[in-house]
Write a structure and sequence with these properties.
It comes from Ciceribacter ferrooxidans. This is Alpha-mannosidase. One of its GO terms (biological process) is mannose metabolic process. The chain is α+β, with helices and mostly antiparallel strands. The chain has 6 domains: 138 residues, Galactose-binding domain-like (Jelly Rolls, Sandwich); 65 residues, no CATH class; 278 residues, Glycoside hydrolase 38, N terminal domain (7-stranded beta/alpha barrel, Alpha-Beta Barrel); 90 residues, Glycoside hydrolase family 38, central domain (Substrate Binding Domain Of Dnak, Chain:A, Domain 2, Up-down Bundle), CATH 1.20.1270; 246 residues, Distorted Sandwich (Beta-galactosidase, Chain A, domain 5), CATH 2.70.98.30; 83 residues, Immunoglobulin-like (Sandwich). The strands form 14 sheets. It has a 9-stranded antiparallel sheet. A hairpin with a 3-residue loop joins strand 30 and strand 31. Helix 1 crosses helix 4, helix 3 packs antiparallel against helix 4 and helix 3 crosses helix 12. The longest helix has 28 residues. It is elongated.
Length: 1021
């Protein structure tokens, strides 16, 4: 250790000669501004700006500032490489820097500056008196003040820097090798001999230069030596992970993107071997809008091959909560953007930081021409280590893709956790190999490196480190600085050649961490669900109007609406793990969405029904009737006033079946009068199929199914039992629910009142109100006539913190698993605790339903905007809300509106799916305009078990896209009747490409579906 201490000391002294101060501080002036003022600030003559000195106090959360001045080179700069160093109170929090800056030199963007990238180049060959105009945009995020800001000139000695890394990098390798490893002693002896040749005495630059040359020649023996064993290879690609929003707003991320890309481009100018990858289309698109100069430079580097475009998604979304069609659009819009903008076809799903991965993804990838899935997040598991890192991943439909889990970590790490943004040193390269659990299978691994989230990506130090490891250092894996995609093409070829050597992981990739993100910031999740359903309805209406009325399809308006939804599905927005200002922006975005969506929907619907009429719209691919509601009375004797939990009222009318994907005139459609009897009091509610009893606290004491005579709830237990839990996770407040959340549970049973609010004839309902601490909870529990499901409409005015609320249902069934809907299907999860993997799944994801049952009898819980649940045996709990305090102290405070339902069935998954679809996408009442008689249905699915997920116009041309899927996990041959105006049909992939003609016989298509298969059709008139 004495030898290493000596070498560390002498190398630190050598490093002091890399940047030599020139004794010049650039006079600066300062002004606050906003991002919207950029053009004016660039053109400003800086009159009225404040002179900067060391006592300047500036910076605040979400702040934006400008610094400008003229750098004049002194005589000492003659003939030398000159850089400017920014001196600021840089903070480094979780890999990001504060402040973060973008530098212009003589009007041209030079690079980003942050705590990891403080120097920027002025000239390679300075001349005394030469002047440079410097302009710096600076953003601050943290709630702290900056003191002072300065730009100081330095001479940059590349020869010293070169020698320093020649010696520093192998020294960092040697310190990690075992004491008895001969390579360690070889390296240390070689470094010792080289450093002893360096003459650090001042006064003779020529003598110093000669000693550097001698030392460099001596160091060369390290890189010339062959290793003493066969070495693995690590392919390294530069990258910067940028959260689109998190502890900052989207508008700040637009600046982060500019700074990070400017830094990457500046380093490419100096390091011709630098290879960098970026993936998120949305940020590249923002860059194109905000900084076209940088975007054009990136485009040039993409064409040169040094800047790699990979990653197929529009951004890095959550993939548990986002709906199935939204995930299709994330892929579709992402691939089309990269193809149309850069001429690049991505093949990889790059999701290093998302909180768990749906088992629907392999099929979405396979049907989009994507072959590789990459992450590292499962290394954050709190219970189990994933057994493999290179594997085949099989989805619920049987589709299989390659999955690769990054293994980068420091060499001496004691955890299973890995990283995708290391400040790359030999320890990370050596750790990548050490952490790899399949060393017998592969000797070539991959890593990305670079500071993320505003840390600016790779640094000069990282690039120097890579150059030395590329040359080869005994004891360190061989490094190849190269693009990402070729590595995965080699891996895919090896896996294709010998598939039997690679394991297969079947089903979801459940992240044993961040389980609370299924519930945090509930309003955002509700807006997401409502927006997804609104888009499904509007697109279908627009296709009907285009197909039957010749109306122009509003493609641009719809794309703008999709952009709002896709942006807000980012993996720190939709999961509820961002600061409050992010949700201010999200609320504003959704408000704009719903205003524009409602106007667009009304405009289209007006063209599909006669003036002054009311029409019924069925967005489903099957005929269906049911309850339709209106804010205004229908003026029919069969209607009923319906009471909402938030105190509002609507009017309901029961209508017979409306054809699939059709608009019909309500006046000529008829009204359905329910059969059977409803009975209701404050203690019970029942119809011909269900009998519900309430206890004195307003909870459900009994659910009796009259069809079978079975009691649904366990003896002596109550359902719809509202429970509050202490919710104080040890690490990540908004992200986590810890396994000990049940250590403190509080019954919400302080019933304030119960009141019968509906007597029928369409449904009966009882309103309950509870108080819990400072919060108010109202539920309207209703039972429709002739229904086998009880519905619960909720209004909560919530004012508690660090509290988790669930609704519990102890079900009297004999089963050990729960089926939960995911995108385009469902998964089965054990509800026992036999293994550590089962115990770790104490909070799981769902889409619109979960179902538990025996072969001929089951109970499903439906919801209209909830995504988390837990199950122990046959005790099922819906997670209704959380109220974390970090990073947003006021998360989930205030009003919540949502619905859920308890459905009894005969073991029929199709019935569950259809009930959930009806619960989320009921028949809609639309206003007529100048549309004349409603048009005929576009198509109808005549085979049960096949549903329509989306109807839209094709991305290219005017044909109609219809997306269908099989819902129960069975093989089916389906018959789909189409409008007589349809003349041709093709089967296409999710990108609407690679069409295969389909026979159209008797006005219908016949299609074979595999279990859970997604099928996309193009229909042409």
């Amino acid at each position: 250790m004495k030898a290493i201490r000596k070498l560390d000391n002498l190398l630190a002294r050598l490093a002091e000669h890399i940047f030599l101060p020139l004794g010049v501080e650039v006079p600066l002036a300062f002004a606050p501004a906003s991002a919207a003022d950029r053009a004016a600030m660039i053109a400003s003559d800086r009159k009225g700006w404040v002179a900067v000195d060391r006592n300047l106090v500036w910076g605040e959360p979400d702040g934006y500032y400008w610094f400008g001045g003229t750098a004049v080179l002194p005589a000492a700069a003659e003939g030398r490489r000159v850089v400017c160093r920014v001196e600021a109170a840089f903070g480094n929090v979780m890999g990001r820097s504060d402040p973060q800056c973008l530098v212009r030199v003589d009007g041209r963007i030079r690079q980003g500056v942050d705590g990891n990238h403080r120097e920027f180049l002025l000239t390679e060959n300075g001349h005394a008196g030469e002047q440079f105009e410097i302009l710096i945009e600076a953003g601050t995020i943290e709630d702290r003040r900056q003191l002072g800001f300065a730009c100081v000139l330095f001479a940059h000695d590349l020869v010293v820097e070169d020698l320093y890394y020649d010696l520093r990098v192998p020294l960092d390798v040697a310190r990690l090798l075992a004491e008895d490893d001969p390579r360690r002693h070889f390296i240390l002896n070689a470094i010792d001999a080289a450093i002893d040749m360096v003459d650090l005495r001042p006064g003779s630059p020529g003598r110093f230069a000669a000693s550097l040359a001698a030392a460099k020649a001596a160091a060369a023996q390290i890189y010339a030596a062959g290793d003493f064993e066969v070495k693995p290879t690590v392919v390294a690609t530069g990258h910067t992970h940028i959260d689109v929003a998190w502890l900052w707003r989207v508008r700040e991320t637009r600046q982060k993107m500019a700074r990070s890309m400017a830094t990457a481009l500046a380093l490419m100018e100096e390091f011709d071997d630098y290879r960098f990858m970026y993936n998120q289309c949305v940020l590249l698109d923002y860059l194109h809008q905000d900084y076209p100069e940088l975007f054009d430079r990136i485009d040039g580097e993409v064409r040169s091959g040094r800047f790699e475009i990979e990653g197929a998604l529009w951004l890095e979304p959550d993939v548990n909560i986002a709906g199935g069609e939204a995930l299709v659009r994330q892929i579709l819009h992402g691939i089309r953007y990269h193809e149309q903008t850069f001429g690049v076809r991505p093949r990889i799903i790059w999701l290093p930081d998302t909180f768990g991965y749906s088992a629907s993804l392999p099929q979405l990838m396979a049907k989009s021409g994507l072959d590789t899935f990459v992450t590292h997040k499962l290394s954050w598991n709190d219970t189990n280590r994933m057994p493999d890192e290179t594997l085949f991943w099989q989805g619920i439909d049987g589709s299989t893709v390659t999955a690769y889990f990054l293994t980068t970590q420091p060499y001496d790490s004691k955890s299973i956790g890995t990283t995708y943004c290391p400040n790359l040193k030999p320890t990370h390269v050596m750790g990548t190999w050490r952490r790899h659990g399949q060393q017998d299978l592969s000797k070539e691994l991959f890593l990305v490196y670079g500071h993320g989230d505003g840390g600016g990506g790779p640094t000069r130090e990282m690039l120097h480190n890579i150059r030395r490891m590329e040359r080869g250092i005994p004891g360190c894996p061989k490094v190849v600085h190269a693009p990402m995609r070729p590595f995965f093409e080699r891996l895919l070829a090896r896996m294709k050649a010998e598939p039997e050597r690679y394991p297969i992981w079947v089903g979801e990739l459940y992240a044993e961490f961040h389980r609370g993100t299924l519930t945090s910031v509930a309003k955002n999740k509700r807006n997401n669900r409502l927006a997804e359903t609104a888009l499904r309805e509007i697109e279908t209406l627009a296709v009907i109007a285009a197909h039957n009325r010749g109306e122009a399809y509003p493609a641009e308006e719809l794309r703008a609406l999709w952009d709002i939804v896709l942006l807000n599905q980012f993996h720190d927005i939709l999961p509820g793990s961002s600061i409050g200002a992010v949700y201010d922006d999200s609320d504003a975005g959704y408000a704009e969405f719903f205003a524009r969506a409602n106007a667009l929907s009304a405009r289209i619907a007006a063209r599909l029904a006669p003036a002054g009429s009311k029409a019924l719209f069925n967005v489903a691919g099957r005929p269906r009737g049911g309850l339709v509601v209106s804010r205004e009375p229908f003026g029919r004797p069969q209607e009923q006033k319906l009471v909402l939990a938030d105190g509002g009222e609507v009017y309901g009318l029961l209508v017979p079946a409306v054809p699939a994907l059709a608009v019909v005139d309500l006046a000529g459609h008829g009204v359905h009068v329910p059969a059977g009897v409803l009975s209701v009091s404050k203690q019970h509610i029942e119809n011909d199929l269900l009998s519900i009893r309430f206890d004195e606290a307003g909870r459900i004491a009994s659910i009796r199914d009259r069809k079978t005579g079975r009691e649904v709830l366990k003896p002596g237990r109550v359902g719809n039992r509202l429970q509050a839990f202490r919710d104080m996770p040890a690490q990540f407040d908004a992200w986590d629910i810890d396994s000990d959340f049940e250590d403190q549970v509080f019954e919400i049973d302080g019933l304030v009142g119960a009141e019968v609010v509906e007597h029928g004839p369409l449904r009966a309902a009882v309103r309950f109100e509870w108080r819990y601490e400072s919060s108010r909870i109202v539920q309207v529990v209703s039972l429709p006539a002739g229904a086998r499901q009880v519905e619960i409409d909720c209004f909560i005015d919530w004012h508690e913190h660090n509290t988790l609320v669930k609704a519990a249902f102890p079900l009297d069934l004999n089963t050990a698993a729960v089926d939960a809907e995911i995108q385009f299907g469902h998964v089965r999860r054990a509800s026992h605790r036999n293994t550590s993997w089962d115990r770790a799944r104490f909070e799981c994801s769902m889409q619109r339903w979960i179902d538990i049952g025996e072969p001929d009898f089951g109970v499903a819980l439906l919801n209209d905007c909830k995504y988390g649940y837990d199950a122990k045996g046959t005790d099922i709990r819906l997670t209704l809300l959380r109220s974390p305090t970090y990073p947003w102290p006021e998360a989930d405070q205030g009003e919540h509106r949502f619905r859920y339902a308890v459905m009894v069935h005969d073991g029929d998954k199709l019935a569950v799916h259809e009930a959930a679809e009806d619960f989320n996408l009921p028949l809609r009442l639309v206003e007529g305009g100048e549309g004349g008689e409603p048009p005929p249905p576009l198509l109808s699915v005549e085979t049960p078990g096949i549903v329509v997920e989306a109807v839209k116009q094709a991305e290219e041309g005017g044909a109609v896209i219809v997306r269908l899927w099989e819902v129960t996990g069975a093989r089916r041959t389906a018959r789909i009747a189409v409008d007589a105006a349809i003349r041709a049909a093709e089967l296409v992939d999710l990108l609407e490409q690679n069409g295969r003609p389909l026979p159209l016989e008797g006005g219908a298509l016949t299609l074979a579906f595999a279990p859970f298969e997604i099928v996309t059709l193009i229909l042409r008139g």
